[in-house]
Amino acid sequence: MAIQEIPLTADNQTFYIKLAGTLYKMTLLWRDSAGWILDIADSASNALIQGIPLVINVDLLAQYAYLGFNGQLMVMLDDDDTSLPTITGLGSTSHVYFITASSS
Predict the structure, then answer these.
(1) Which of 9, 40, 57, 100 lies 20 to 30 Å from 63 when distance is taken between CA atoms?
(2) Cβ atoms within 10 Å, residue 21
(3) How far is CA 66 from CA 4, 26, 56, in A?
(4) Taking CA 57 as the corner, what is the angle to CA 1 and CA 84, rounded to the nearest 5 degrees?
(5) Residue 26: per-residue pLDDT
(6) What is the pLDDT of residue 104?
């Protein structure tokens, strides 16, 4: 299993990142009562998925397998709490990981 942490800060942000060999554009926005929301686009900024809430301990990409991400996107908290990532905790106490199966 290969685990890649997506480097984040507790700010609204847009960045490009390579996951499983493919370049994606990610946008994370804080939406008050909705919490952190993720949009994913291809490298040409064409929207692939919009409005994914960052919830913990589930594969955020599971329902989008048909898009061929070739991995799981998981949010984990440092303290194993069952709450959501906070406005100030993104990147410090809450982390987003892209997980792929090992190629053997």
Answers:
(1) 9
(2) 7
(3) 21, 19, 22
(4) 140
(5) 98
(6) 47
Residues 81/88, Cβ–Cβ less than 8 Å? no
- Cα dist. 8→36, 67, 89 in Å? 12, 24, 10
pLDDT digits (tens, 9 = 90+) for 65-87: 999 999 999 999 998 667 889 99
> Which are the contacts of 102, defined by CB distance < 8 A and separation ≥ 6?
1, 2
Q: Are strands 47-53 and 22-30 parallel, antiparallel or unpaired?
A: unpaired
Distances (CA, A) of 28 to 59, 82, 99, 102: 17, 21, 19, 28
Q: In the structure encoding, which two tokens stand for residue 84, read together?
A: 């959501």
Lookup: tokens for 48: 């692939």
Tell me the pLDDT tens digit for each residue of 26-70. 999 999 999 999 999 999 999 999 999 999 999 999 999 999 999
* Residue 54 DSSP one-character state: -
Number of residues that this document lists for the chain: 104
